[in-house]
Amino acid sequence: MAVYQYRCAEHGVLEVARPIGTAADSEPCPGCANPAPRVFTAPRLALGSARNRALIDRTERSADQPAVVPAPQSRRAAPQAQNPALARLPRP
Ligand SMILES: [Zn+2]
């Protein structure tokens, strides 16, 4: 079995496992049933075990589709001056 990639314009990349040499030029997208054209990629032969491939896939996917997004850092309020005359001084 080989994994072939197809790209739907709306839903992105989908992977289909087929026997080697039986890939169609397009596959129906499971999301919208429109034909998704085949994407030619390098064969995944030298990437090691399935565990390693899963790790590499997760790493590549996290670059543009992160599962966890850090919260924006909140700005701390400027400390209030105790002396009212200090509050009138110019700020940087
Ligand atoms: Zn689609």
TrEMBL record:
InterPro entries: Regulatory_FmdB_Zinc_ribbon. Residues 66-92 have a biased composition (Low complexity). Residues 57-92 are annotated as: Disordered. Residues 1-41 form the Putative regulatory protein FmdB zinc ribbon domain. This is Putative regulatory protein FmdB zinc ribbon domain-containing protein. It comes from Geodermatophilus amargosae.
